[in-house]
Design goal:
Length: 276
């Protein structure tokens, strides 16, 4: 099993949104995509931005989303194009695991029409039924979701339970590929049905936390987002609980690497750790 950490486009926020007190200077938030090459096929964790996101957030109500979170992505930066450049065809991707359904995580999903999609089934139903301001506040852009998504969704609850004693206090892990090396687990709070992925690699257990944390210091030093970010957080108490659980795991196990989706420095460090 080989793991590659790609980024597919980026947005900017004022630094102080993700880290209270960090000021108004814009910082870059890359959209992480993890690529796992496995004997069973290629698995992706999230799909980043793709050019279709820019088009989708330039229409109607979704223009608000595009104004708040400007989309920067070239055709070459989409995950499908980056995989093609490595000789991996879209059809080689057999599984996509989605942390959640925000646009910067599902932007490339339509490029992989043959993949099963491991995602929270309730979150998928919500994304298809939400309307108006409620939909916008949840960061959902339905045009990015394939029409046949409900038929392709595999809920974590449909997968076999995983050996997870060493992941405590995290719980609820399920085995995605049947060999105990790729586990999906709930990391609740940021959005409905938010999921993380554990990759058991030879040197390190990589815990891809999606948006359960926007930077590693949220986990290790309790540096929380600005209160304005609470407005887009589905359940603040559970969000705090997830951060505490990740911190407890990381303190107990130095071989665990917690990797948020939008922390550029952490992505660079994780690439180095994977390279051994
Ligand atoms: Zn998000």
């Amino acid at each position: 099993m080989r793991t590659h950490l790609l980024t597919a486009g980026w947005t900017t926020h004022p630094a102080g949104v993700a880290r209270r007190g960090a000021g108004r200077a814009p910082v870059r938030f890359p959209a992480l995509v993890a690529v796992v090459e496995h004997a069973d096929g290629v698995l992706l964790f999230d799909t980043g931005y793709a050019p279709r996101v820019r088009a989708a957030v330039s229409r109607g109500l979704d223009r608000v989303y595009g104004a708040l979170l400007p989309v920067h992505v070239t055709p070459e930066e989409s995950v499908a194009a980056q995989l093609a450049a490595r000789g991996v065809a879209a059809d080689d991707v057999t599984t996509v695991v989605l942390s959640h359904l925000h646009a910067d995580h599902v932007g490339g999903l339509r490029d992989f029409p043959g993949a099963r999609v491991v995602a929270d089934r309730g979150a998928v139903a919500l994304a298809r039924s939400a309307r108006g301001v409620g939909r916008l506040r949840r960061g959902l852009v339905p045009a990015l979701l394939p029409a046949d998504l409900p038929d392709r969704v595999v809920d974590p609850g449909d997968l076999p339970p995983a050996d997870q004693a060493d992941l405590a206090p995290l719980a609820g892990a399920r085995d995605v590929l049947g060999d105990g090396r790729v586990l999906v687990l709930p990391l609740p709070g940021h959005s409905a049905g938010h999921l993380g992925l554990v990759l058991r690699t030879p040197g390190v257990d990589l815990v891809l936390v999606g948006d359960a944390a926007w930077h590693t210091r949220a986990v290790s030093h309790g540096e929380l987002p600005h209160p304005v970010a609470r407005a887009v957080t589905a359940d603040w108490a559970r969000y705090r609980g997830t951060l505490a659980a990740l911190d407890a795991l990381a303190r107990r196990r130095p071989d665990v690497l917690v990797l948020p989706s939008h922390d550029e420095d952490a992505i660079v460090a994780a690439r180095a750790a994977l390279a051994g």
